[in-house]
């Protein structure tokens, strides 16, 4: 008899009420809440053809598949977070059978319970700073070339100096902004800057940070970020959220291992 696989999105306390209409898990149905020992795992059954060990390892190299899975994962977590405090789990946390989900709750209890207490009423805001490319100079007349080699070098040095100045301004703004925002947040995390290929955003990512903020102080926090938007030429500041507190939930999946190892989970 084949074992069933269950994808686990997040852990919550038992709660009254219903999730928003229309939320769908990876199987196209609303997520199930598997209750055990005063905790609930939001989970859905998934096919072994996609989520058993070998196919899952292949899928984790497929950016389109990952993006679709991440959207479904985030939609479930966002729906949960709209009605209760949720501790998001890592992408592709998979258990064998509902008994494996219950073991996950048992073995993660020492992290889940304090995390739910610490994150209750808090949201995550993301802030990124980008050093943008220099504005293109007016095109020269067709076929025009620098008058001399010295003129060519002067132009090259000018472009490099302009880029270095933009990076310096972006670095200065990132440091001062992060210092100020950290003073208005309960916790902060500095993530590795994203490459343009991953982010799809123009410019080079200098600051990629997350901040844990009480929900009722969100408007104040966003206003603080907005005041820095136009402080430095060639530098772009972006704020996203509110999100479920992914960056502050800790790293718990089955047996404390990494995502993508369903043969090692419960």
UniProtKB/TrEMBL annotation:
Signal peptide start and end residues: none
UniProt-listed InterPro entries: GvpL/GvpF (IPR009430)
Alphabetical UniProt keywords: Gas vesicle
A Pfam family the protein falls into: GvpL_GvpF
Keyword Manganese attributed: no
Subcellular location: Gas vesicle
Renumbered residue ranges of the record's region Disordered: 184-203
Family, similarity comment: Belongs to the gas vesicle GvpF/GvpL family.
Protein name: GvpL/GvpF family gas vesicle protein
Organism: Streptomyces crystallinus
């Amino acid at each position: 008899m084949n074992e069933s696989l269950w994808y686990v999105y997040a852990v919550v306390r038992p709660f009254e009420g219903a999730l928003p209409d229309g939320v769908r898990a990876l199987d196209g149905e609303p997520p199930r809440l598997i209750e055990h020992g005063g905790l609930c795992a939001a989970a859905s059954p998934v096919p072994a053809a996609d989520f058993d060990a070998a196919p899952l390892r292949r899928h984790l190299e497929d950016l389109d598949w990952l993006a679709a899975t991440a959207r479904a994962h985030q939609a479930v977590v966002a729906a949960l977070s709209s009605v209760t405090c949720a501790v998001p789990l890592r992408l592709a946390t998979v258990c064998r059978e509902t008994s494996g989900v219950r073991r996950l709750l048992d073995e993660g209890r020492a992290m889940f319970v304090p995390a739910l207490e610490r994150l209750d009423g808090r949201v995550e805001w993301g802030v990124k700073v980008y050093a943008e490319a220099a504005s293109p100079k007016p095109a020269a007349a067709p076929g025009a070339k620098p008058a001399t080699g010295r003129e060519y070098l002067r132009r090259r040095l000018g472009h490099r100096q302009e880029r270095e100045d933009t990076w310096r301004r972006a670095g200065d703004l990132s440091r001062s902004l992060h210092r100020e925002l950290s003073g208005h947040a309960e916790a902060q995390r500095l993530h590795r800057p994203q490459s343009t290929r991953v982010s799809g955003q123009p410019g080079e990512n200098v600051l990629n940070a997350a901040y844990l903020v009480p929900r009722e102080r969100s408007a104040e926090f966003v206003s603080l970020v907005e005041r820095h938007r136009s402080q430095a030429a060639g530098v772009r500041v972006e704020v996203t959220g509110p999100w479920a507190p992914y960056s502050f939930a800790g790293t718990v999946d089955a047996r404390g291992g990494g995502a993508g190892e369903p043969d090692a989970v419960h």
